Amino acid sequence: MIERQLWHPVADAHALRDAPMAIHLMGEPLVLWRDHASVHAWVDRCPHRGARLSLGRVLTTTHGLRLECPYHGWQFEGGGRCQHVPASPDFHPPSGHAATVVEAIELHGLIWVRLQPWAGLPPGVPLDAPPAFAEADDPAWRRVICGPYSVATSAPRLVENFLDLSHFGFVHEGWLGERGHAQVQTGEVSEGPLGVRVSAARAWQPRAYANADGGAWIDYGYTVPHPYAAVLRKDASEGDPVRNAIALFIRPDGDEACTAWFVMATHNDPASSASVVEFQDTVFAQDRPVVESQQPKVLPIGRMGPVREVHGPADRVSSAYRRYLHRLGITLGTC
Question: N or C: which end of the chain has fewer CB within 10 A?
Answer without folding.
Answer: N
